[in-house]
Design a protein that fits this description.
globular, 6-stranded mixed sheet, 7 helices, disordered C terminus, 226 residues, alpha/beta
């Protein structure tokens, strides 16, 4: 599997392109602020043809460039229905104070939007990705797993040493702990976590050092690969 990415914009949100190999079809994950040039560069470098954009959630720093990226190549965006409204109303995902920072910024939905559901299996670009609904950061947060490759695109659910904030509209701390317990802790230790911000990590490392996973652990069921 080919995975390439870069931190986009002032928020340094990780945008990824994912394909079976160079020269094939791909999906794009979370094209954030000013991500279009970086996406174009990766597509040219690896000779990739995108077939879809996948969104881990609807916050502005993850969806800023979704409409132009989708529109330039006539591909759909996939998002959980609980976050779909954020595509056209980005201020709804932020506190009143934070929303003021974006002034009169307006976004719009791509021409084609498809909705994600928990447990769905996406077969796109020769890839198989499992959708896990992981609310707590937003109501419609999801992560994407490639089970055969033991890879997880965690969005803003899980970071190296930390987790996503839960104090914005739609966030809830108890809910994000439940998502960590039910969707992260059961995964094998060697699962590579590619987060929405910061460096990659593994489930095993986070199980050992992340205080939030330790807090979530009592709520988890049986684990695998320990």
């Amino acid at each position: 599997m080919l995975i390439a990415g870069f931190p986009a914009g002032a928020f340094q949100t990780n945008c990824y392109v994912v394909a079976p190999a160079a020269g094939e079809e791909c999906v794009i994950v979370d094209p954030g602020q000013d991500a279009t040039d970086g996406v174009d560069e990766l597509l040219r470098e690896h000779r990739l043809k995108p077939v879809a954009v996948l969104l881990t959630h609807g916050h502005l720093d993850h969806v800023w460039s979704v409409a132009p990226v989708c529109g330039a190549r006539d591909v759909p965006a996939w998002i959980h229905p609980d976050d779909r409204h954020l595509l056209s109303d980005p201020a709804a995902g932020w506190s009143d104070t934070s929303a003021q920072l974006f002034g009169g910024l307006t976004l719009s939905e791509p021409d084609a939007v498809r909705e994600l559901s928990d447990g769905a299996v996406l077969r796109l670009a020769g890839l198989e990705l499992v959708v896990d609904h992981t609310p707590g950061h937003t109501r419609g947060s999801v992560s994407f797993r490639s089970p055969g490759e033991e890879i997880m695109f965690s969005g803003d659910l899980l970071f190296a040493g930390s987790i996503g904030r839960s104090d914005l509209p739609g966030g809830d701390y108890a809910t994000i702990l439940r998502s960590l317990a039910t969707k992260c802790l059961p995964l094998p230790d060697d699962t590579v976590v590619l987060p929405g911000h910061g460096p990659q990590t593994t489930i095993g490392r986070e199980r050992a050092v992340n205080p939030y996973l330790k807090e979530a652990a009592p709520h988890a069921g049986p684990t695998r690969g320990i």
